[in-house]
Amino acid sequence: MVEQINAKKHPFVMCNFAPPDMVGHTGVYEAAVKACEATDVAIGRIYEACKANGYVMMVTADHGNAEQMMAPDGSKHTAHTCNKGEFD
Q1: 10-residue block means of pLDDT along the chain (88 residues)?
Q2: How many CB atoms lie within 10 A of CB 12?
Q3: CB-based contacts of 88: which residues, under 8 Å, 6+ apart?
Q4: b/e sequence 39-61, b meaning 16+ C-beta within 10 Å
Q5: How many domains in the chain?
Q6: Domain residues for 26?
Q7: Contacts for 15 with CB less than 8 Å, ≥ 6 apart
Q8: Does residue 65 sit within a domain?
Q9: At 37, is the secondary structure helix, strand, or coil?
């Protein structure tokens, strides 16, 4: 993605980060944390490339998943959520 942004060949680029969702469905907390951390790093790199090349970056989601890995009863929660995401 960064290569494509740096090439400035396209007026619009889009990317889907599937790992947090896919790994979140497994219910394996440690794997979900790693998937989210890797995605965070990738988004940071893409953001810097967008800034450097005059692109506007938008981040959106249609559901949550990895932010809630445990149900209130302590069992694994592996379904989508409607929780609001927060940015730091």
Answers
A1: 96 92 91 94 97 95 85 90 76
A2: 6
A3: none
A4: beeeeeebeebbeeeebeeeeee
A5: 1
A6: 1-82
A7: 1, 46
A8: yes
A9: helix
Tell me how far apart the alpha carbons of residues 85 and 39 are, in angstroms, rounded to a whole number.
14
Torsion of CA 64, 69, 72, 78, to 10 degrees: 70
Give the Cα separation of 53 and 7 in Å (integer).
9
Paired tokens of 15: 């990317």
The token duo for 86 is 């927060």
- Domain membership flag for residue 27: yes
How many other C-beta atoms lie within 10 A of the C-beta of residue 5? 23
Radius of gyration of the chain (CA): 15
Tokens of 68: 């809630």
Q: Enter the pTM of the model.
A: 0.82
Q: Which two tokens stand for residue 76?
A: 């694994």
- Backbone φ, ψ for residue 64 (5° rounding): -105, 180
φ, ψ dihedrals at 28, nearest 5°: -90, 100
